C-alpha cells in the first residue's frame, strides 16, 4: 500500500515553470479560448509600492465623485448611528495633538493621482472601454478580497474598486513577495519578475461549470469541480465534460504550452460545446488540489488506458456553509468603512477604548 507513496515535498517546480504560468506568457497562444483581457506590462514601481504599503489610500481626485471617497454619514444603516455625539468629544484635544505627531512621523501615503498618474488614467481608460473588469496580477486574482466590495465579487466598475480589492488581497501580496518561494532553484537568482496587471472584461460565470484540470507529463490525471457545492445536474454531464476536456488538452493546450505538467482552470458554459480557458497554474503545492490531494495526483502513473476521475460533489454538505470561502481574510464591515475615512478611524478607536474600559471594569467588579 505504501510502496507508491510520495511525500508532499516531491512536487518539484522550477522558476521557469512558474514564469510560464504568468498570464502574458500564455495568453497569446490561447487568446481565442480566453475572455477578453488587457495586459499592462510592466506596471510602475510606484504602483507596486502602493500595493505593499500599509493601509488603503484612494486617489484624491477633484471633480470626481465616488461612493468610496465620500464622507461616511451617521444614519440608521451604518454602524456609527447609535454612537452618542458626546462620545466624539472624549479626549479630543489629546487625540488631536497625538494625531498631529503621528502624521509627522509617518511616511506619506502614495497617491495614484500624484505618484503614477499615467497608469491611473490607463486604468480608467480600460474601465471605460470594457465597462466592468476583473483584475489579477501575473498569477493570482484577488478572490480573497471580494468582501471589501459591495457586490461581494471581483467585478470592478470604477478605478477605486480596483485599488480597494488589490490592496486588500493576500493573494496579490503573494505574487509580489513570494511567487518563487517553493521553487527548487529559487536561490539561483534574486531577480524580480516583471510584474503585470491584467484587466479582464467581466462576464457572468456560473460557478457550477468551473473545473480544475490536473495534467501530469502531458496526461490528465484528475479533474475537480471548483465550486464545492452540490449541483444535481452535473453528474449526468460527466462524460460530456470529459470528452471536451480530453480534446481541449490534447489538441489545443499540449501543442502550445511549454511544460508537460500544469493545472488548468476552465469554464464549460451551456450548451457544453466549448471550453473557456480562465487560467493556467503551476503543477505545484501552491495550487489548491481541491477535491484531490497532491499525494494522489503525484502517485498517478502514466497509463494511456487508465482513465482519470472527474470528481464532483455528489450530495449536499451542510458543513460547507459553516465557513464561507476565504473567510479567514475577512474583517468586520465597520473596520472596512472606517478605513475609508480618517474621522471614522478615530471614532472606531474611541469606541474600542470604551469597550475595553467597560470590560476591565466588569472584570474588577467580580
UniProtKB/TrEMBL annotation:
<protein>
    <recommendedName>
        <fullName>Translation initiation factor eIF2 assembly protein</fullName>
    </recommendedName>
</protein>
<keyword id="KW-0479">Metal-binding</keyword>
<dbReference type="GO" id="GO:0005737">
    <property type="term" value="C:cytoplasm"/>
</dbReference>
<dbReference type="InterPro" id="IPR009772">
    <property type="entry name" value="CDC123"/>
</dbReference>
<comment type="similarity">
    <text>Belongs to the CDC123 family.</text>
</comment>
<feature type="region of interest" description="Disordered">
    <location>
        <begin position="61"/>
        <end position="112"/>
    </location>
</feature>
<keyword id="KW-0143">Chaperone</keyword>
<keyword id="KW-0963">Cytoplasm</keyword>
<keyword id="KW-0460">Magnesium</keyword>
<dbReference type="GO" id="GO:0046872">
    <property type="term" value="F:metal ion binding"/>
</dbReference>
<feature type="compositionally biased region" description="Acidic residues">
    <location>
        <begin position="76"/>
        <end position="103"/>
    </location>
</feature>
<dbReference type="GO" id="GO:0005524">
    <property type="term" value="F:ATP binding"/>
</dbReference>
<dbReference type="Pfam" id="PF07065">
    <property type="entry name" value="D123"/>
</dbReference>
<keyword id="KW-0067">ATP-binding</keyword>
<keyword id="KW-0547">Nucleotide-binding</keyword>
Amino acid at each position: 500500500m505504501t510502496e507508491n507513496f510520495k511525500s508532499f515535498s516531491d512536487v518539484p517546480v522550477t522558476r521557469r515553470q512558474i514564469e510560464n504560468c504568468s498570464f502574458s506568457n500564455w495568453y497569446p497562444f490561447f487568446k481565442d479560448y480566453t475572455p477578453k483581457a488587457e495586459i499592462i506590462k510592466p506596471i510602475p514601481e510606484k504602483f507596486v509600492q502602493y500595493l505593499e504599503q500599509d493601509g488603503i489610500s484612494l486617489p484624491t481626485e477633484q471633480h470626481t465623485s465616488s461612493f468610496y471617497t465620500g464622507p461616511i454619514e451617521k444614519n440608521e444603516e451604518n454602524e456609527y448611528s447609535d454612537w452618542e455625539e458626546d462620545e466624539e468629544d472624549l479626549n479630543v484635544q489629546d487625540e488631536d495633538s497625538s494625531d498631529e505627531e503621528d502624521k509627522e512621523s509617518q511616511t506619506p501615503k502614495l497617491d495614484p493621482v500624484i505618484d503614477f498618474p499615467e497608469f491611473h488614467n490607463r486604468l480608467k481608460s480600460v474601465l471605460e472601454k470594457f465597462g466592468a473588469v476583473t483584475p489579477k496580477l501575473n498569477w493570482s486574482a484577488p478572490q480573497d478580497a471580494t468582501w471589501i466590495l459591495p457586490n461581494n465579487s471581483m467585478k470592478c466598475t470604477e478605478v477605486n474598486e480596483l485599488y480597494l480589492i488589490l490592496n486588500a488581497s493576500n493573494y496579490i501580496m503573494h505574487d509580489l513577495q513570494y511567487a518563487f518561494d517553493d521553487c527548487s532553484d529559487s536561490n539561483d537568482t534574486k531577480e524580480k519578475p516583471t510584474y503585470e496587471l491584467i484587466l479582464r472584461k467581466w462576464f457572468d460565470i456560473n460557478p457550477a461549470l468551473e473545473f480544475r484540470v490536473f495534467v501530469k507529463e502531458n496526461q490528465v490525471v484528475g479533474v475537480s469541480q471548483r465550486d464545492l457545492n452540490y449541483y444535481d445536474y452535473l453528474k449526468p454531464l460527466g462524460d460530456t465534460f470529459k470528452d471536451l476536456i480530453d480534446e481541449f488538452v490534447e489538441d489545443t493546450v499540449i501543442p502550445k504550452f511549454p511544460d508537460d505538467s500544469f493545472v488548468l482552470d476552465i469554464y464549460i458554459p451551456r450548451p457544453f460545446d466549448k471550453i473557456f480557458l480562465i487560467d493556467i497554474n503551476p503543477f505545484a503545492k501552491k495550487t489548491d488540489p481541491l477535491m484531490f490531494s497532491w499525494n494522489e495526483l503525484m502517485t498517478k502513473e502514466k497509463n494511456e488506458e487508465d482513465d482519470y476521475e472527474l470528481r464532483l460533489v455528489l450530495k449536499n454538505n451542510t458543513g460547507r456553509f459553516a465557513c464561507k470561502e476565504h473567510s479567514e481574510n475577512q474583517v468586520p464591515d465597520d473596520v472596512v468603512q472606517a478605513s475609508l475615512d480618517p474621522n471614522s478611524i478615530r471614532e472606531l478607536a474611541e469606541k474600542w477604548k470604551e469597550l475595553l474600559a467597560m470590560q476591565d471594569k466588569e472584570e474588577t467588579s467580580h
